[in-house]
Design goal:
Layout lengths: L6 E6 L11 E9 L6 E6 L2 E2 H4 L5 E3 L3 E5 L2 E10 L11 E7 L2 E6 L19
Antiparallel strand pairs: 1-2, 2-7, 3-4, 3-8, 5-7, 6-7, 8-9
């Protein structure tokens, strides 16, 4: 049987939109049949997170590995020390990569709860 490419199995994130200033963690889980040759990492707008945040305000956790039959489950967190509204409009992508292929999953924040409408329409009154 041929080896399968790695795949992202789950992206865990808060059920509600984080508030500015909150500490937030998002988790990415993947599986691979070539664990010793597999990388799991996060990108921000196509760049490595550490290169954009040398201060550590957004940082990756360490990769955790757990055997699952013939495969290995990999897990890596993305930590926001102080969530900022600009993060809502930033493209964060979890990537799993091995010689067998690549899989990606984009982070999609929950939609903000609809509050009362405060704008007035431009209609005639």
């Amino acid at each position: 049987m041929a080896l399968q490419p790695p795949r992202i199995t789950m992206l865990r994130m808060p059920a509600e939109l984080p508030r500015p200033g909150e500490s937030v963690t998002v988790s990415c889980e993947a599986s691979s049949e070539l664990p010793e040759l597999t990388l799991l990492y996060w990108l921000e707008n196509g760049f490595f997170v550490e290169s954009l945040h040398p201060d550590g305000t957004v940082r990756e956790g360490t990769v955790q590995e757990e055997p699952q039959g013939s495969e290995l489950a990999l897990h890596r967190d993305l930590h926001f020390s102080s969530f900022d509204s600009r993060h809502l409009h930033t493209n964060f992508t979890c990537v799993v990569l091995s010689p067998l292929g690549v899989d990606t999953r984009e982070l999609q924040w929950p939609s903000p709860a609809l509050g009362p409408v405060t704008e007035r329409s431009g209609g005639l009154g």
